[in-house]
Amino acid sequence: MTKPESEITWKDLEIGSIVIEPGNANQYRTGDWRSQRPIFNSNKCIKCGICQLFCPEGCVEQNAEGYFEANLFYCKGCGICARECWTQAITMVDEEE
Amino acid sequence: MAKRIGIEVSLAIADAAKLADVDVVAAYPITPQTHIVEHLAELVANGELDAQYIPVESEHSAMSACLGASAVGARTFTATAGQGLELMHEVLYVASSMRLPVVMTVVNRALSAPLSVWGDHSDVMAVRDTGWIQIFVENGQEAIDNVLCAFRIAEDEKVLLPVMVHLDGFHLSHMIEPIYMPEQSEVDQFIPPYKYPLPLNPDKPVTMGAFAPPIIYSETKMAQEINLRASKKVILQCWSEFGSRFKRHYSPVESYHSEDAKVLLLTMGSFSETAMTTIDRMRKEGREVGLIKLRLWRPFPFKEIRQAVKDAEVLIVLDRALSFGGPGGPVCSEIKAALYNEDKKPKVVSFVGGLGGRDITADGFEEIINRGIEISQTGSEQEFEMFGVRE
Ligand code: SF4
Ligand code: SF4
Hints:
Structural class of chain A: alpha+beta
Strand order of the largest sheet of chain B: 3-2-4-5-7-6-12
Radius of gyration of chain A: 17 Å
Order of helices and strands of chain B: EHEHEHEHHEHEHEEHHEEHEEHEHEHE
Order of helices and strands of chain A: EHEEHE
Number of strands of chain B: 15
Largest interface: A-B, 16 and 23 residues
Structural class of chain B: alpha/beta
CATH class of the largest domain in chain B: Alpha Beta
Shape of chain A: elongated
CATH topology of the largest domain in chain B: Rossmann fold
Shape of chain B: globular
Distance between the termini of chain A: 29 Å
Largest sheet of chain B: 7 strands, mixed
CATH class of one domain in chain A: Alpha Beta
CATH topology of one domain in chain A: Alpha-Beta Plaits
Strand content of chain A: 15-25%
Strand content of chain B: 15-25%
Radius of gyration of chain B: 21 Å
CATH superfamily of the largest domain in chain B: Thiamin diphosphate (ThDP)-binding fold, Pyr/PP domains
Distance between the termini of chain B: 54 Å
Oligomer: heterodimer
Bound molecules: iron/sulfur cluster
CATH architecture of one domain in chain A: 2-Layer Sandwich
């Protein structure tokens, strides 16, 4: 979409509100739903990748050093990664604004 | 030149769908719609109609299959009635919201319980707000004419909305009537090929019916509403072109001896034919009565209704459905709403009758008119009065 959602008028919509741009769901900031964020502690991390496998959002990525981290644009803060991590390397902390 | 043949209205409707060269029919049989879909199944099985007939396990699936077919660009037809229409309910909204031009004949039937297979308009009224274009017909000729028009209206690129053609169960669906069936070539010229602008196609993927968060949902509904209201222009053009080609004329609100009438009766569907007999009779006796027939139910023809009734003193509306605990007849309450802010308007009297297949005879309509006049003169209007009910 060329415009952000907040600026789209009813006249801008395709017939039947059909989405014509494949894969544009990646523009949807599910990170807005989050009330807690995962903090990854690289001192405890054994780079097993379990957090990436379990993340229902598919938003855990491996960085250049091989450690895992959450993409906060998509992370919904569900805490599954923290629960599944073998070494308790992930802590959920409250989002404070 | 079209031939005039004697044929059961249901079979003629199936033949009309064949003339429209439908690609897909997905339907579940239910009385009194059965003969329409049985005949279509037969036409496909005999190789007379080159289409996919999908025998589904329910009406919910029937409409769902129709959506898929319409979305890939197939001309799609179905038919249902009563409980079947209710089982489709949620999918009806999806068809209109996704702008898929499915054409469906609804053979109007009373809703359970108690079980009734006979006709009234309780099924229609329950789907009033589903966003479909809805047209009522009163005889077999009107049924097949409007099924043909329905494809052209639905598939017009300015419309792209599903259309219901309503006909009364048994009172109309099972009658054998003389009907002019147009020639194939005439229909081919009248209905252009269907071309959905954004079809489901793996080479050019699109997403239909996607999730809409609060930030965009209102915009999608506004677009849908504007589009449905704007479809009236295309409906009028379609009927006008149908009239010039086939010499049979249709309009959203039709009047019968209403010009100088102080008292107007308003009906929908096949009962209008009996009501016309009553009007003829009463006119002969010098009574200033007339009839208004509401053909286009959605989009509601506000302008035409106001124009048609503005000079009358009394407007008597017959509904064949109840709005339980509400304002009486659903059609009447819409008419009242359409007139409320007008300076010049008739008194409106609501009758509910003809429920669950009960007939209203020409004498019955005369009684309704006389009673309506009495109610308006004595100022004793209630939400509604039920005609012919045993006290
Ligand atoms: S909190 Fe949930 S969504 Fe966020 S990274 Fe962990 S598993 Fe994924
Ligand atoms: S599950 Fe824990 S230890 Fe394994 S990669 Fe993720 S953070 Fe590191």
